[in-house]
Amino acid sequence: MSVELKRTALYAEHIALGARMVPFAGWEMPVQYAGIIHEHNAVRSAAGVFDVGHMAEFRVFGFAAFDFLQGVLTNDLSKISQLGRAQYTLMLDEEGHIIDDLIVYHSGDLEYLIIANASNHEIDFAWLSAHAPAEVELVDESDRTSLIALQGPQALGIVRELAGQGWEAPSRFTLCEALLDTTPALVARTGYTGEDGVEILTSTSAAPQLWRSILSFGQVSPIGLGARDTLRLEMGYPLYGSDMDRTIDPISAGLGWVVPAAKTGYVGAEAVAKVRESGPTTKLVGMTIQGAIPRHGMSVLREGAVVGKVASGSFSPTLETGIATAYVPTGLSEPGTALQVEIRKKTLQATVVKPPFVTSTSLSA
Amino acid sequence: MAHPSDRKYSNEHEWVLVQGDVATVGISDFAQDQLGEVVYVDLPSAGDVLATGDSFGEIESVKSVSELFAPLSGEIVEVNSALGDTPETVNSDPHGAGWMVKVRLDDAAQLDALMSAEEYDAFIVEG
User: Fold this and answer.
1) How far is B36 from chain A (nearest CA, A)?
2) pTM of whole model > 0.90?
3) ipTM of predicted complex
4) pLDDT confidence band for B122 (50 / 70 / 90)
5) What are phi and psi of A246, to 5 degrees?
6) What residues contact residue A154 under an 8 Å CB cut-off, 6+ apart?
7) With an 8 Å Cβ cutoff, are A35 and B37 in contact?
């Protein structure tokens, strides 16, 4: 039996650009165009445009929207009471395990927009639906919404040119409307690369024209999912399914910073409080490895004994070394700790590092 | 994609270029394109002995790892150690500076089992 892969509104663009397409979360997506390292470096040095139309968008509206979301998300929504503001947050189950990591935007009066991982689209919507009170409007906007990310030191300059005179770019972690050339859009100053840049929401029908407008700027390169992964891993940004899943709590995953201890009353709050009290037994740490690329599931050893597993692993084009995240016993999580990773038949030396692996980007400047 | 006709090819996408009793081995242009940007090349040492079909090393790109399989048998007389510092040479010059090992041929007749450039070009299209 073959299940058909879904295609974003930009599929034909990728084919025309000669992209190598791969299945990802049920979608046929570009993994690379010119090459992963080439694309990675293009984002760090100039600008890159990404089709992330596979991601899910949910709109929540109503007088009870705030209370509803406060009850299912870990982060404190009152921190984004100002219109347009966004925050990174988690959705947990009753055991305190992570269902998904999300960005929620205070997109309008009484309204929130959630952007969620493609791999959790159905699960997230079912969970939100099950917990939403009747008077809240919860709409899955994904099918009619395209998401295009434009990231890199030159990204904002391009957005400003497309938006024209009189448009002011939103500040970091904020969104606002824009007319990009002739395309009405929402421009969010968020991203997954560690560079300054935006994520642009627009209609699926307008997306191809917007994509082409962005690529008409010579300094922009099309970027596939391969480089998206190396970029986010260099920053230590987690990837659901790789760094965390339904068996992991936020404290072990190093995400306590979006689970404020003072906030109570949301699904999973009690379970998280228990983990905080007893302390996690394993923690997600960063590691650098030379000589081969560490990959998800590989064993992490200390003095010959298996102590943990690689969560995310890849090559850092900026550092030219292998980088990884791994779950290791809390006692071995100090930066500088010497560990080994079993890569196929060899044992390679690894050093615990506190991410981000790359500290000098257009965002950190 | 036309591969150079001065050499033979294996169905594991290696090429073999013979000069006297020494065969130089590398991976084809098709193989480097499929792999993507090479970041690590793991090769054996001079003095190691290969048997046909043996795995003799690994070549790793960001997204994948491929094993290298010996297209013939013999003793390794030289290894391209430059690939340790500049693995991307495999991508930029797979048939030249991207060579991997030189092997003293046990038996030149082994070459008959390998494909010509035209046969290899047809082979990669068939998939």
Assistant:
1) 6
2) yes
3) 0.87
4) very high
5) -70, -5
6) A46, A47, A219, A220
7) yes
Instruction: Report how many domains make up chain B.
Output: 1
Superfamily of domain A1-279: Probable tRNA modification gtpase trme; domain 1 (3.30.1360.120)
Q: How confident is the model at residue A63 (pLDDT cuts 50, 70, 90)?
A: very high
DSSP string, A193-217: SSSSEEEEEEETTTHHHHHHHHHTS
- CB contacts of A292 in chain B (<8 Å) are 40, 42, 58, 60
Mean pLDDT over residues B94-113, rounded? 96
The reply to whether B23 falls in a domain is no
Which residues from chain A sit within 8 angstroms of residue B37, using beta carbons?
35-38
- Substitution target in A36, A234, A318 with the highest count of B β-carbons within 10 Å is A36
Q: Any CB–CB contact under 8 A between A117 and chain B? A: no
Q: Does domain A281-358+361-365 have CATH number 3.30.565.40?
A: no
Taking contacts as CB-CB distances below 8 angstroms, the residues of chain A near B43 are none
Q: What would the pLDDT profile of B37-67 be if each residue is shown by its tens digit?
A: 999 999 999 999 999 999 999 999 998 999 9
Mean pLDDT for the stretch of residues A287-308: 96
A33 reaches B (C-beta below 8 A): no
